[in-house]
Please model this.
Amino acid sequence: MPTASVSNLLKSEPILLKPLFKRYAVAVFTALSSALPLLHAESENKKVVFQFASYYSEKSTDVPNPWLATHIIFSPARINDDFTLLVKYPNMLRRVADLKKVNPKLKVMLLIGGSKSKNFSEAASNKENRSKLLDEFELYMEKYGLDGIDLDWEAPTLSRPDGQTGKPEDIDNYTALMREFKERFPDKILSVDVGNRVEHIDFANAQKYADYFNLMSYDYSSVNHNSPLYLSNLSRSRICVSDSVEKLMKLVPARKIVMGIPFYGHLFLKGKNGEMLSYKSLERIVSKFKLTPCRDEIARVPFYVDTKREIVAACEDPQSVREKCAYAKSKNLAGVMCWQFLDDDKRLTLSRAVAEEMNKD
Model:
């Protein structure tokens, strides 16, 4: 892993990037707008691109481009107290599922849980409850023609202020849920989301049932770099993307690992912790605060400084997501997953960069 210092980046003149916004996006859009589809689930390179589409508002009505991913995972579906599922915007789920009519090779799945994993522990606690939950999975998969389920039980065994409870048996119960899912739906896809510290899952047994492990290789820090490929002096975390990948590769086959790429970063304003900054908002923020783009050549991510050379923003860009794709391919991983589609700009600049890079030989 590269370890050379990058502290001189802020002591000397910032490393300027070429304008990355409109010029780059137009070039990529032109290259990728041919009549031929870019990706599908059975492409020769057999690399997957999971695109998450997470809807938290009725104002969000856009849907992903069905040719820029092999799998689209709709989010979220929460677990109710009676172990039924709550999908707040079923009309959007229908629209996303209908993308399979445009690209018949596209796979569409439903995410269960998420950052609010209330009732997951209770639903998985015994066979009867798990059966009720699996009944719900079946109902939604049949109603919307879905190809599988993405389990996003974040931090089993832990209790959280949002109502999530945890107990030591959660890990075994989670594995049982995976096993019973595959026994009941052998032809459906099962993916399991994994935190960047790679814990709280019995990977030795889970890999028998999960088709993919979606590594959430982001949120390493809300200060400076959100998703550094490697550690540098500007990283505020003790681990990075490559660390998480290497750890998970020791636990499950590389062919089952889908590496996460965030379409967001953080904005650092005085007196406030890092605020979420979507890629679609980046160009406006750079213009508003007259920021200068720089690049951490060790961590392989961009950041943006003001006239005082203080870091004001950090967010992925087309170059950094391409480099992450290249890294995933170099490790022979199953592919990459992007969180999330709605954070991309209207030109789908990052989505297109990912699709093009993953489609390369």
Q: What stands out?
A: Residues 36-263+317-358 form a domain with the TIM Barrel fold (CATH 3.20.20.80). The CA atoms of residues 98 and 250 lie 38 Å apart. Residues 1-37 have pLDDT under 50 and may be disordered. DSSP finds ten helices and 14 strands in the chain.
